[in-house]
Design a protein that fits this description.
alpha+beta, 8 strands, about 25% helix, tt1808, chain A, about 160 residues, two-stranded antiparallel sheet, 4 helices
C-alpha cells in the first residue's frame, strides 16, 4: 500500500488511531488518548509561539526507509516549507520532529524512528512522555537541552 492509498481509503477516515505504513506497505495503527492530544497541543503551542521563521505541523507524514511515519508535531523552517510546501508525505524530515510517547511504544521502536528521521535530514527529535517530560536528541544521541529552542525546559506544564 502507498500513502496516497491510505489517504483515499474511506474506511480509514475518522479512526481513533494514528496510522503509519511500515517498510512493507502494511498499515500500523496506534490508539490515541486525550492525554496524547493534550500534549500534542501543548508542544504545538510552544513551537508556534517561540519558534520564528517556520511552520508548525501536527500529524506530519514523512517517507522513510521503513515506510511512512507520522510525526505528532513537526517544525519546518521557512526554507524547508518553500521547498516542500504541502507535499504528502514529505520526502525529507522537517528540522524538528516530535513524538509523544504512547504506552505501546518501546524505547527501541522510538530510537529506530528517530534514526529514520535523522537519515532524512532532521536536525533534532524530541520525545515527550505522558507525564510531559521532554528528552532531546540530535544525530549524536541524547542531549541535555534543545539545540533549536534554547529556553525550553525538560518538563511541559499546563493548567489541567
Amino acid at each position: 500500500m502507498q500513502w496516497a492509498d491510505v489517504l483515499r481509503d474511506q474506511s480509514l477516515q475518522d479512526l481513533p488511531y494514528k496510522i503509519e505504513l511500515n517498510e512493507w506497505g502494511q498499515i500500523v495503527m496506534s490508539p490515541a488518548s486525550n492525554r496524547h492530544a493534550s500534549l500534542q497541543g501543548e508542544v504545538y503551542w510552544i513551537l508556534r509561539n517561540r519558534m520564528a521563521g517556520g511552520k508548525v505541523l501536527t500529524e506530519c507524514s514523512v517517507e522513510t526507509d521503513a515506510g511512512v511515519k507520522v510525526l505528532d508535531v513537526a517544525w519546518c523552517s521557512s526554507e524547508f516549507f518553500q521547498k516542500q510546501g504541502f507535499t504528502t508525505p514529505y520526502p525529507e524530515a522537517p528540522e524538528l520532529c516530535v513524538e509523544i510517547v504512547s504506552p505501546s511504544n518501546s524505547d527501541r521502536q522510538l530510537r529506530e524512528k528517530m534514526a529514520l528521521y535523522f537519515r532524512r535530514g532532521a536536525k533534532e527529535c524530541w520525545l515527550v512522555s505522558e507525564e510531559g517530560r521532554v528528552r532531546f536528541f540530535s544525530a549524536d544521541g541524547e542531549q541535555e537541552r534543545s539545540g533549536l529552542l534554547q529556553d525550553i525546559g525538560s518538563v511541559l506544564t499546563w493548567d489541567a
